[in-house]
Design goal:
The complex is a heterodimer of chains A (126) and B (128). Chain A is an all-alpha fold. Chain A has one domain: 3 helical TM bundles of succinate and fumarate reductases (Up-down Bundle), CATH 1.20.1300.10. Chain A is 79% helix and 0% strand. Chain B has 128 residues and is an all-alpha fold. Chain B has a single domain, classed as 3 helical TM bundles of succinate and fumarate reductases. Chain B starts with 20 loop residues before the first helix and ends with a helix. The chains are: A mainly alpha (126), B mainly alpha (128).
């Protein structure tokens, strides 16, 4: 005998087993960002008042370029997940909510891509 | 009160519900996150694109950030980043099931506020 609710059995859908995915992704990116934000603050302090050539030489270092790309991707991903929840919580008009969710995702992916292209351009000396 | 007129969280803080350190820090975490998303992250992107764009683009960015609006933006971004970073660590500790009692929540809350003030002050001292 099954303990499954008859209605649930009739519908045939159990848990998709991804209920905590959003929650976990937000925390995982947060942990990554703790370290990347510390590196960003280090970079901000090192480059405080620096001229163009110094800033460019810093970002052209492969390790710094890699960390900056990783930071931009994690940052926009984490921002996208966070803004999604804020919109879900406070925007109750369906069309407006959908438009904002679309803008959030489009903006986040644009930010990641644009940032990576700029950093690669610096790192590859173009 | 009719059901559709009940205040929704966090808008009950103030008129219906006494502000507490915990509730105010909770909504401030969201506010700083939204601010960093729509103002802070684009500024970082601007900085990276100015470094890739050339001396003229970099000079334009430096000129804007030395103006009064730029300085306010920089202060707001550093303050939000410091707060969201430290309070985010507080949230990550809670997510492991630790420090969830009221006393620990308040102690960690004050620690976050002190660390935020210190880090922001040090950064502004170096940058401004």
């Amino acid at each position: 005998m099954s303990t499954t609710n008859p209605l649930a059995r009739a519908r045939g859908h159990g848990s998709a087993r991804d209920g905590v995915h959003h929650w976990f992704a937000q925390r995982a990116s947060a942990v990554l960002l703790v370290f990347l934000a510390a590196w960003l603050l280090y970079a901000v302090v090192v480059l405080a008042g620096a001229d163009f050539a110094t800033a460019r030489a810093f970002l052209a270092q492969p390790f710094n370029a890699a960390l900056m790309i990783l930071l931009l991707v994690s940052l926009f991903y984490h921002a996208m997940l966070g803004l999604q929840i804020v919109i879900e919580d406070y925007v109750h008009q369906a069309a407006m909510a959908m438009a904002l969710q679309f803008l959030t995702r489009a903006g986040a992916f644009l930010g990641m891509t644009l940032g990576a292209v700029h950093v690669l351009k610096i790192a590859l000396g173009a | 009160m009719r059901a559709n007129q009940r205040p929704l969280s966090p808008f009950m803080i103030g008129p219906y519900y006494r502000p507490q350190l915990t509730s105010v820090m909770s909504i401030a975490h969201r506010a700083s996150g939204v601010f960093l998303s729509i103002v802070g992250a684009p500024f970082l992107l601007w900085w990276v694109s100015a470094v890739s764009g050339g001396p003229a683009a970099f000079q334009a960015l430096q000129a804007w950030f030395s103006g009064w609006l730029g300085k306010i933006a920089l202060i707001a971004c550093l303050l939000s980043l410091a707060y969201h970073l430290f309070n985010g660590i507080r949230h990550l500790v809670w997510d492991t099931g630790r420090a969830l009692d009221i006393r620990s929540a308040y102690t960690a809350g004050w620690l976050v506020l002190i660390a935020t003030a210190l880090l922001t002050a040090v950064l502004l001292g170096l940058l401004l």
